[in-house]
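YM 10:42: Helix-turn-helix transcriptional regulator sequence, as discussed on the call
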Amino acid sequence: MSNNGALPLLESPSGRAVAPCCPPLTERLMNAEEAEAASRMFRALGDPVRLRLFSAVASHEAGETCVCDIPDVGVSPPTVSHHLKKLKEAGLLTSERRGTWVYYRVEPSVLAAMGTILTGPGEA
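YM 10:58: structure's back
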């Protein structure tokens, strides 16, 4: 059975508020379900290639990047696709096909959720 699944976001793309997946680490002890949700996110980022790919998408000036514009991360194109798929399965990236290319983006709420888990709301 797969442990992959999308993380709940702090804000949906439509702008509606959604409960975060997990409380800040300093707020209280996470229950097993919250820990599993946070673990999926951090497990996906635990691979150096995935972390570099996530960074390439997150730091792109347009807020999204075509798979064709992702810099060389030292692995073959099929392996890049595999890692991007894992980041999508973890709920960290979204994608949209435009013609023959796929464009990836990080929803701002994902970054906010990651920050909230680590620092708590308003503690950045």
